[in-house]
Amino acid sequence: MVKLRVEFLGGLDVVFNKQRTYDLDIPSSGAFTIKDLLDYLVDKMIDNPKDVEVFIEDGTVRPGIITLINDADWELEGELEYEIEDGDVISFTSTLHGG
């Protein structure tokens, strides 16, 4: 079991039932990576299939969405391969705004 907090900011909360913060307990029998988390979020937490493309593109976080792992840029932490630990906070902040 992996316990973590996931935050959806900058309007992304609309895709995730208009809720900005989730405390998750995710069953896992081994290493649980950011890639696994993205798969979980798409499969379990996005109700409208059309909303997936707002969040994911080509198997990763869509360009224009800042991803932080414990307030550090995910690029410094290994991006999709980062192994999530209990207590981690993963934040997704959209910089894409309509006009």
UniProtKB/TrEMBL annotation:
Keyword tRNA processing found: yes
Residues that bear 1-thioglycine: G99
Protein name (record): Ubiquitin-related modifier 1
PTM comment text: C-terminal thiocarboxylation occurs in 2 steps, it is first acyl-adenylated (-COAMP) via the hesA/moeB/thiF part of UBA4, then thiocarboxylated (-COSH) via the rhodanese domain of UBA4.
A GO-annotated cellular component: cytosol
Biological pathway: tRNA modification; 5-methoxycarbonylmethyl-2-thiouridine-tRNA biosynthesis
Organism: Maudiozyma exigua (Yeast)
UniProt function note: Acts as a sulfur carrier required for 2-thiolation of mcm(5)S(2)U at tRNA wobble positions of cytosolic tRNA(Lys), tRNA(Glu) and tRNA(Gln). Serves as sulfur donor in tRNA 2-thiolation reaction by being thiocarboxylated (-COSH) at its C-terminus by the MOCS3 homolog UBA4. The sulfur is then transferred to tRNA to form 2-thiolation of mcm(5)S(2)U. Prior mcm(5) tRNA modification by the elongator complex is required for 2-thiolation. Also acts as a ubiquitin-like protein (UBL) that is covalently conjugated via an isopeptide bond to lysine residues of target proteins such as AHP1.
Gene Ontology annotations of biological process type: protein urmylation; tRNA thio-modification; tRNA wobble uridine modification
A Pfam family the protein falls into: Urm1
Family from the record: Belongs to the URM1 family.
InterPro entries cross-referenced by the UniProt entry: Beta-grasp_dom_sf (IPR012675), Mopterin_synth/thiamin_S_b (IPR016155), Urm1 (IPR015221)
Superkingdom: Eukaryota
Keywords: Cytoplasm, Isopeptide bond, tRNA processing, Ubl conjugation pathway
